[in-house]
Fold each of these.
Amino acid sequence: MKTKLLTALLLGTSILGTGILGTTGMALAEDVTLNIESWRGDDLTIWKDKLIPAFEAKNPGIKVVFAPSAPTEYDAALGAKLAAGSAGDLITCRPFDKSLELFKKGNLADISSLPGMDNFSPVAKAAWQTDDGKSSFCVPMASVIHGFIYNKDAFDKLGLKVPTTNEEFYAVLDKIKADGTYIPMAMGTKDLWEAATMGYQNIGPNYWKGEEGRAALIKGEQKLTDPQWVEPYKELAKWKPYLGDGFEAQTYPDSQNLFTLGRAAIYPAGSWEIGLFNTQAQFKMGAFPPPVQKAGDTCYISDHTDIGMGLNAASKHPEEAKKFLSWVASPDFATIYANALPGFFSLNSTPVKMEDPLAQEFVSWRGKCKSTIRSTYQILSRGTPNLENETWVESANVINGTDTPEAAAKKLQDGLDSWYKPAK
Amino acid sequence: MDTETMAAETRAKRPIRWHVGVFLAPAVLVYTAIMILPLFGTLQLSLFRNIEQSQVFVGFSNFRTLFGDPNWSVNFWNALRNNVWFFIIHMLVQNPIGILLAALLSSPKLRFTAFYRTAIFVPTILSFVIVGFAWKLILSPIWGVAPHLMDFVGLKSFFTPWLGKEQYALTALSLVSVWQFVGIPMMLIYAALLSIPDEVIEAAECDGVTGMAQFWKIKLPLILPSIGIISILTFVGNFNAFDLIYTAQGALAGPNYSTDILGTFLYRAFFGFQLQVGDPNMGAAIATIMFLIILAGVCVYLFLVQTRLRRYQF
């Protein structure tokens, strides 16, 4: 009865596990075959047609197979395969705790001394390091940057200028609203995470001063109830009148469609949208970073490390796999990857030349603004209640108007206090 | 020969009936493997906790956390409350409508009964994913047909994005679930109504009991056992529900956990969600409590209700 759901889910994963087990066991005698575990099924053709041939051409004798599973099943399936010893040689890493847990269990090898790791800055590597920063276990592959994508045609038609400060931002929104042709901003609160990720984490770093605030929060020197953490919620609360009718039930795909169909003028975005928007939108697009409070303020952007690659500690071909990882850490890989997937930016310290103008715009902010990662990801989402999940819920509540910014911040801080004791 | 020795002889001659065991074996084995063993596995899992990468026996400490730690208990009671409301809506809306439809369908004057029967039953066999997605679209304030249809009859002002409002979302989803499953009570009651012998109805007519009075005084008492079965099926189904909420609202059961039921709460605890790492032991503890709730409900029905229902033999 009650176990019906559970049994079905467990059976499902085990069947999936054995299915993949069947296909990965076929290594050719002469050539060494490396298997890559990943949740990025969307990238299958890029790996097959561009990345893997480029590597194989330089490294004869090593064959690489990209074997993705569905994003929602990835973590469970990977865990089952690692336990059964049937997982691929190379493991695509989720940022922070999920991968850290694998490293602690001994599933991921320590690759701190891998040639090529010095191509990355400490912030880039932070997502795949132990808390003390001593051991690294994944090569950083890409990050995503937050900002706002806007409909250039709509801005031209209404004679609007790209806003740089908060005041200008609301002035632009007011003008779009007064004109009435476009929904000022395409965002919904139904799926919750839009409000947190594209809302709070997008505009927040300007208030809590990026890394400075994030580090202080982890150290316990700042609280989520401090003004710099409540202020972004106050801004979100002001967004409500600019969102479309019935935004409470508007889902993430709804928001994407509203924007690409040209019905909305501004889209609070993550750079991962670029690829999709380029193929769907029939108008010119531009992007601007989250507006600062006063002209001349330093700007901060969320440049979130999102995807990396590590070595399965139980791999039968560790030397070949390390060779592949070193290549992943090289500028060669970065160039192919960043151009094939505009919006997923290389974390390599060597600047990568990108063709896509929108992607160029996003990445140019790295030069003038200070980068940080999402405040809730490192360490702070380890306990119950989970800070990231609660941030989703509360950000949506603030925009819906069911919680005041202060009440939302207090709930989050209380939840965090209940299990997190910062090291003094 | 006296009767005693005869009886002894037949007893000795009767062969062992292997076929009984053979015929039972597949069902027993399959049921044990996929239902009973996992059930005990879950109960066992709920008594352990993962400490330093190994499973340690902790007694009832997971249950103490579930009920004693406000981080868990608030969510648990919220989920239970929502689940009870979900069940109440089904009992108050789904079952009466099911009985009404069955009564209408069994009326001999109605034409095209086969068509109506099929049409009303079809949603039941649809996948939850389709139902959840279709209703999300129907109710969507942007592309949905609901706002347009309501505009058509001048009720546009009553439209709100129901699935996105804390106070309406759970009721709206309960009604979607009612829409999907109303075919089941309808079919069961319909079958019960058809099995009432014509003699009983004719006798009632001779006594002058017709129309509504006939339904209330003759038919309803005769279908009460079926209604009991339906209630318990609804109870078990509702407290196991998960799929519709998950497909329509996601695992966080928004807005603000207002549609969180025990199934989604269990899912988040067991498998984790986004940055929340799954905790199979706490998940198993929740699953155990769900099992006990359902067990208690079924026991109440079996021992208190069913024994008092009068059955009529024809």
Amino acid sequence: MKRLRPEQKLDYVLADLAQDVVDAADPELRQAASGRSLRATLTEIRTIVHAAVSRCELLPHTLPKSDDPIEDQIDDRE
Amino acid sequence: MQSYNVNRNEEADEATAAIAHAIQALPEEDLLRLKALARLRARSLPGVEWADVLNETIVRALRGTRRWSPGVPIISFLAWSMRSVCDEYWRKMRRERTVLVSLEGTGASWTVEQADEAPDADPERTAAAVQMLAILDALFAEDEIALKIIAGLGDGLSAAEIRVRYGLSETDYDSARKRMRRTLLRHNLRGWER
């Protein structure tokens, strides 16, 4: 078996664990978040999300970068 | 040519609007998923907060640098974008280090382009990965099966391959994954304050 570098190992592990988070059932998520105020947590997340969306509305229009080699590499890997 | 560009601009506008609408309409559970994902990713990036990862993920999604394919849930699209954001973080770090080394006149021979192609050449990323893998090991230290699963995942094995390697039944494996998921969610939504 080919020996993987730590960053490659971590990439595999995090990709799998991230999928676990995506697939988690809704009650599991609510239960996990209930240690502090769920409302406060959601407000915090919404604030970040809305700020990011608002920031983009102020940015000049950008076309998809189909000729961006970095993005192409990522797409190939995925 | 001009009408082609106008059409592409309109298409891009529509795609961006669709992504923005989907993000703003995310249900509460998906917002929690976003935080858990961002925190998990940020934990492996020195000096980066989960809010930064989440912010950058949304900005990149709305800039249209990645296409949101029809039928893909927006949360899955954002989870993949988050992975790219972390890769970009390391590329940026590497470019900045290369520029710094060049400016110091130490005879470094890499250019920015070469740095991105050179294999096995990012000791900082390696060190951060070792540290994060150790954190995950510590997180599951009390759970022998979870540690085996992490080791198997790190070797790029599938669930079936992990079960064979470590002699785990399907029930053993599935139960451990459930424990791991709960631990991960708890730590990424409550603990791991940084």
Amino acid sequence: MSEDKNILNGSQLTGDYKYGFYAEVDSDTAPKGLSEDIVRLISSKKGEPAFMLEWRLKAFRYWQGMKEPHWANFKYGPINYQDIRYYSAPKLRGDGPKSLAEVDQEVVKTFEKLGIPISEQKRLSGVAVDAVFDSVSVGTTHQVELEKQGIIFCPISEAVQKHPDLVMKYIGSVVPYQDNFFAALNSAVFTDGSFCYIPPGVRCPVELSTYFRINAKETGQFERTLIVADKGAFVSYLEGCTAPSRDENQLHAAVVELVALDDAEIKYSTVQNWYAGDKNGLGGIYNFVTKRGKCAGRNSKISWTQVEAGSAITWKYPSCILQGDNSVGEFYSVALTNNMMLADTGTKMIHIGKNTKSTIISKGISSDRSHNSYRGMVKIMPSAENARNFSQCDSMLIGNNCSANTFPSIEIGNNSATMEHEATTSRISADQIFYLQSRGLDKEEAISLVINGFCKEVFKTLPLEFSVEAVKLLEMKLEGSVG
Amino acid sequence: MLTINDLYASVEGTQILKGLSLKINAGEVHAIMGPNGSGKSTLSKILAGNPQYTVDSGSVEYDPGGRSIKLLELDPDIRAKEGLFLAFQYPVEVPGVPTSMFLRSSYNAVCRYHGVEEMDPLDFDVFLHEKMKLLDMDDKFIDRAVNVDFSGGEKKRNEILQMAVLNPRLAVLDETDSGLDVDSMRLVASGVNKLRTKKNAMLVITHYQRLLDYIKPDFVHVLCKGRIIKSGGPELALEVESRGYDWLINPVGGLR
């Protein structure tokens, strides 16, 4: 039996978290702690125009008067914001313009090991990648072809310099720095992330993708992503994340803003696999993320798909503001927690325009001693005539020591709204496993088939390669968690 | 092919099988009949390795071809890979998993075990459609999630389709006729008959004789209170049909 298992799952048995390595990279790092000086330092490192520094400083001052929120359905120790480094960048060879040749080869190798080739010779077909290593973007592929169509896809720090008008117009327009504690912190110290602008009527021919990698010790990653789809434009964007296995908790506080104008569509997919800590909950990433999209124009559509399988703590609610008439918001989520992981995740759908429609499909899977909560809000404003929402929140428990909670909230300010809400909690039944085993599937294959079926509605919304990766990721995570 | 020696087995602390012995050779079809609670389904679950049932004593020797295996020591999936198949009385639903995908995963798991090359989705699709013809199934069937919203007849046909795909050495059919109307039963039985060869064997568990009109057994055994109390040829089934079980269980009463 055991030998047979090795053949079938050999690649999965090699380690709990195969992205846990770190690279010895010569880094340019800021001293620990957060002050106005650090904010100024980051801004000057990035060579930013004055408006950006001003905005950062306003955010910083606002943040100083805020309190860390603790309403999520979990507890964690205090975070010492003065014990974190807010900037870490692999050193460049020389001061000339950034090109891949100047990037430390260890960094390039790190991305290759992660399966993300960033050199133009080896680039992935059909996917343009922006690779972010700690606080800076180290390479963006396919830029030239994209430019021909007027598509801008570059590190946000580059966009601040080259396209200040666009950045000034849209940054903070969906998530203002006053929004919440972590959004304010991010606005003050954000270091890199991606910027995408799709001009009117253009359908982006490739998937745009950002791969975030935390490497350095004791640093936080504060990326900021801004995607704008102009009238009639379409873009599909993918985000992947990993980090080394370290015993200390590391902070990741990102902000993602999406803006869709008239008839535009943005599809945003995430496979999040930050290091989640060990079996006893030591180490792992604290993932406090604000993601929000605004369907600003008529007939616009924003669709979030997330597979959350990592991080010690996840606190994340990708949301949609449905402002334009007939706009559509979608949220598809699979959140898996194992060991001691804590996840409090869900979405907000704010209906403002007429005939707006939202769909929420959330699948939570918890095993071991983890806690997994869905928290969602659907708000129908008085102006939203004929709004519709469908919500489905399913939880699956594996074992007896985990928990799953659902906190849905609905506020209706217009009587013409149609709301549907379904929720289920289930366990993988012994009968199911026996049935599948009696057809020749081993226990782990049987469980992965059941989980696949459970998550199918979400997986089918992912681009194909990502969906394969997501399935593998869940299999790897569930390895050995079913006794 | 299968030798069951003095088998005792329990479920939830209650002993159900009490000294059951049975020998099945390749090419034979055996039928087990018996009143409710006699242990028919327990026997099928013990053979397939359901972890909710425990073996108290006894042994089961299984020979899938030229070697003898102690069946009870194997995990359920290994038993399946070694050619044992159980058609469930109550097939289980697996939401979200298309039947075709399930069948291919299952088929390829068995291939891997035997070191045979796996079948790619296109070839498998052709292979699967041939098998579906045996059971007169329409194409949509395999796109639906495994057993979800299937009628009773569809569930049983799905079991036999799985059997056709896996081509087992020893098939145990646990009350495959229960819940079927005559037409469905005829269809299922004809599917089973097409899978009958000289190399494989079947153990047909049934409450009623009528299934045995369609699947003709070589041997019939009557199970009562966890042991076989009478064995014979096909005529035994007819006798049970006309006289019931009582004359076998209480021979004295039968003289009345």
Amino acid sequence: MNEPAPSLINALSEAELAAIDAEIAHMPQRSGAAIDALKIVQEHRGWVSDASLAAIADHLHMSAAELDGIATFYNLIFRRPVGRKVILLCNSVSCWMLGSDCLTQQIRDRLQIDFGETSKDGEYTLLPVTCLGACDKAPVMLVGDDLHESVTEDRVRELFDQPGAPNG
Amino acid sequence: MDRPLTRNIHADRRPIDLRGYRDNGGYEGLRVGLGLSPADCLQRIKDSNLRGRGGAGFPTGLKWSFVPMGEDCSPGHKYLICNADEMEPGTFKDRLLLECDPHQLIEGMILAAYTIGADVAYIFIRSEYHIAAQRLREGIVDCEREGLLGDNIQGSGYSLHMHVHASAGRYICGEETALISSLEGKRANPRAKPPFPQVSGLWGRPTIVNNVETLSNIAHIIERGPQWFNDLGLTEDAGTKMYGVSGRVKNPGCWELPMGTPIRTVLEEYAGGMADGYELRGFLPGGGSTDFLTADHLDLAMDYDTIGKAGSRLGTGTLIVLDDATCPVGFVKNLMDFFAQESCGFCTPCRDGLPWSAQVLDDIENGQGKPEDLDTLERQVEFIGAIGNTHCALAPGAMEPLQSALKYFRADFEAHINQGCCPWKARQ
């Protein structure tokens, strides 16, 4: 996803500030809202750039280094740009038994990306994720906000074989 | 059969809103509870013998009793936190309760908070459960509108403010002190105990952290009494339990059954037995950090003490089934990769030990294993698996499936080493 216009890079938008301040309101100290603030900015901008990080740190009265230590701890805070939809593919044991490796390979081939990479058209980023809590419907994955259960090879083809897509 | 936790949950998994919940008797427990003193509520929970459903099985009433009350407590906030960070491999029970019956949890939380005198409550929920988080947020707003949350709840003089915190990932957040660190906006490193959170938790204030299923039981116990709850269980352990089965069985799923239901009943009657063409080799009884059990254990009761005596743990009560077409070494390696990745990195045995175990397992799985590797794994189990050598229970939990796999599937490990390949891969 694109960065906001250069003039806005170093400033948090009013909507972002309002949402962050609502979190700060029930915290005894501003830094308590660090993770919420990172998520709020990521929701608006798709990811958390160095400039965004610095702006958040400034607003929370903490150093950028400290905030980066927090941001990089959590796997769902993206410190690099991601695609319009993030594919979170469960690779924990129940899904592994029921073929998540095959699905991974199929998605890699179709979108021509490995884990941690974004497709050339900027549509998808592929990431592994720990158990998604739908093990009775294994294998499962999240594509954006949509949970796909009992995923088959045909389903992967339906999902990712749009016109113009690699191998489509 | 009385199934209090799932009475509002339907096969199509449609959620129930505040009106539907109340029409079905919801918030009656709250009315009863607010008419009792916090001490009386605590006594009901103690007498119910409810044990923590997050996996450890600690008696809930006893946990709550450590919270300083009245003049014993310095002025300031007390916190109740619901641990909805369900991420244990093979565990999918809390999702059902969260998505389908959010008010059952909210009502239980209000009563739990009232009992310990908390004025602020958080639901710490994993980011991927965004549907559940949305329904909980809506539920909280609906409750505030009807005076079930906020200031002076139902004219009782008791006030509680509830918030949903959507997490940003990492399995370690499910550890209660790591969860507290994360809720303070920090890296999710666990904390040394003591002090225990009941005395010094979130922001240094008295805090109780309970699992979704535990809290979902509270309103029923307050309303219907401890004896009713004790009578639900088939064995010494009280209540019902959300059991689940995943893996190659005919009908994987999640069911509320009496505590102490035999494993065979869960596996054969509810999960329909093994899928056609597959044999049972073993199973983890309660998520990825429990020891394997085998077909010899099928007639055991699924309760804390019985599974404990058999050398494993009830854990989350969700079975992961290992079938004969799945390589046990690969199975354990998948789990070890998971635990190694999810180590918070704070203590050395976990940060460096788990990747080492994973590497040894990887070598064996890929035909590069040496006979002495099994001794190495045994030593790792002995050292990393000992509670007290690590900062929290993550690494000891990681050793549980490994140590029992070395016991029950040793011949399979040896076959990998002797044949210089994975026999399962070679067969494909």
